[in-house]
Amino acid sequence: MYKYIFGPVPSRRLGVSLGVDLVMSKTCNFDCIYCECGSTTKFYNVRDSYIDIDRLIKEIEDVLQNLTPDYITFSGSGEPTLNKDLGIIIKKVRKIYSGKIAVITNSSLLNNLDVRKSLEEADLIIPSLDAISENIFKRMNRPIEGLTAQNILDGMTKFLSTTKKDVYLEIFIVEGINDGEDELEKFVRYLKDKKVTTIQLNTLARPGAVQDIKPASIKRLSEIREYFISHGLNSVEIIKKYSSREELPKYNEKLEKLILNMLNKRKYSIDEMVELLQKNEVELFKYLNILQKEGKVKIVIENDQIYIRS
Ligand code: SF4
């Protein structure tokens, strides 16, 4: 049983991704209402050496004997930049692994120069930004005392103006909290002159730390995407998984039948399906996620590849 590693998980964004937890569960300086790991139990804002690095490297070496993931991703059940050895760990992982490295962060420590330097060791950074206004930030992210929306924005501005890496900036939308017109306008004003690879809109897929919050519908996410694009933000995508056919903008019954028919005979890798059905991966995953939810297909990892089988 591994202590610091989880997965691998098949991911549309990252392909085959091996997850690494750099803090103890659940250590964070936020207590987000939508957190799928539940409420924060270790509410810290101190950068520390939370894990045994030698053990982590041994665990990764062990997994790499049987698997070559597309990404090793530092995320997990807490905030990875709270680990003060982040940069050293990424350098050590590079010595034993030639694939790509991603860090998913809540952006709270981007004001810290050492955190920004450590992130530059990765290939891809996925920082979140859920609010611009102070009151909405407090409602969404419920930060530890002393952290403000202005801290986050200052750090984000410094990070985005200096990073040379790919940045997928994630905005988590909770309906009725951070999707009001005023807040969307503020997002546009803040992001307009910032350089990011893509802006990704996400929402709840599973229950969060607070029970009565509502995930944004695909319709609402599409409206927000349109709003952002029409106000000059470039690459904006929705990464919420479609959970029903009704949510698909152009549901194609024939394509679904074809997918199920193919998988009746044998399993296919996602690359084979893309080639045979002449649809891109994003489009196919819309159908596959729904079919997986209904138990009609399984999305698995075998020999470093994502396979689909019935
Ligand atoms: S920042 Fe991430 S780990 Fe921390 S509470 Fe929010 S969602 Fe959970």
Blueprint (SSEs and pairs):
Blueprint: E1 5-11, E2 15-21, E3 27-28, E4 42-43, H1 53-64, E5 71-75, H2 86-96, E6 100-105, H3 113-119, E7 124-127, H4 134-141, H5 149-162, E8 166-172, H6 181-191, E9 198-202, H7 218-230, E10 236-238, H8 253-265, E11 268-269, H9 270-277, H10 281-293, E12 298-302, E13 305-309
Parallel strand pairs: 2-5, 3-4, 5-6, 6-7, 7-8, 8-9, 9-10
Antiparallel strand pairs: 1-2, 11-13, 12-13
Helix pairs in contact: 1-2, 2-3
The structure holds iron/sulfur cluster (SF4).
Residues 28, 30-32, 35, 37, 40, 78-79, 106 line the site of iron/sulfur cluster (SF4).
Helix percentage? 25-40%
- Element-by-element helix/strand order: EEEEHEHEHEHHEHEHEHEHHEE
Uncertain segments: none
Let me know the largest β-sheet: 8 strands, mixed
